[in-house]
Amino acid sequence: MLSEKTRIVGASAIGNVLEWFDFAIYGYFAITIGQAFFPHQEPVAQLLSTFGVFAIGCLMRPLGSLLSGSIGDRYGRRAALTFSMTAMAFSTFLVGLLPGYDTLGLAAPLILTVLRMVQGLALGGECPTAFIFMIEHAGAHRRGLAGAMATGGGTAGLLLGSATGAILTALMPPEFLQDWGWRLPFLLGLPVGLMGLWLRRGVPEPPREAGMLQAPVREVFSHHRWLLARLAGMASLGAVTFFIVFLYLVSWLQFVDGVTPARALAFNTIAMASALPIYLASGWLSDRIGRRKLLLGAMAAGFVGAVPLFWMMQHSDPLMVLAGQFGFVLIISTIFGAEPAFMVEATPSPIRCTAVALAFNLPAGILGGLSPLAAAWLIHRTGNDLSPAFLIMAAAAVSLVATASFRDRTGMPDERPEQVTGSNPRQLVA
What we know:
This protein is an all-alpha fold. The protein has helices at 4-28, 30-37, 43-59, 61-75, 77-97, 101-104, 107-137, 143-171, 174-179, 184-187, 189-200, 216-223, 225-234, 236-256, 261-289, 291-313, 318-345, 352-382, 387-404. It contains 19 helices and no strands.
């Protein structure tokens, strides 16, 4: 029998592992998927179409955050996690079974788009609800580490997806990979999802000193729009950089540098393997020195370092390519290690799932989801291979201003007296 603490950690992380594993393999096999579902287009158009479907799925994330956030604030965090896990597992499995354009014609890309929309809905609720669930179970002086462990599940999913892609690409002949090999990782979604649902059975709800609201979505939009805007601004850099570096970059290295798919996936796998310990170190460090200064430092590094790091990745020396990617990994991992606890501490408990999920997913769904498409389009239109760096710089400027507007609440009690309103929930303040 697993201990309660082990079940809490496993239940929080496994959903992120599955959901980011799916998003990872979709990004890594974007070229192959484009050939299967958009076979009559030239290569650049295929890639743009594939990332367009990817973007549509990401754009569903804010809607998913409203749905899962409302469930989490009204009925409990565990109910929201069960909903998102079920939706993600079955839709991922069906992507693996879906016949291509040669069999279904136009229906194939249409059904693929619908399944990506369901996955976007699921991901919109899973990721923030999982780290809220784990942080609320942690003590006041361990929230940073707890949040880093929960979000680390997402990076573990990306790592698993990257490693799976690298192994399949290395071992399978190209014709087998294009025909059916790319489907194998998607079929794993169902058994992993069932394991996640088993882990979440019987896991207790985190303690909540404040009561539940009947209409948390209305409360957020009526009385906490400024808090929502600042939280979303803070999450912008992580969203844009994450999608460009961990998903789009595999295709960028192939098109811009002429790197083979196997080597591009290997670079990404190495970079993500280094991300996990940085996540944990950042969360641990934020519990000791404060989260605000750590986040501001990483965001400033993203603004200053975006162009030089992309320039390094254009170099012919593989070590320079790895060094450039590692620079981005250091920035992203520092942000994602400290940011979850910072967002949770800034938000009142009765609206936390709704506000944090929406703030996390608005930039992820709109800015992050569109980033691979925007990066591919910018390079194609301008001929400047460094164009993605300017997207990162713009997001860094927004995040710096938004984060600076908060005060640091590291280690402070979860509930402030003015946040707990009893019979008058409209008095909740940020």
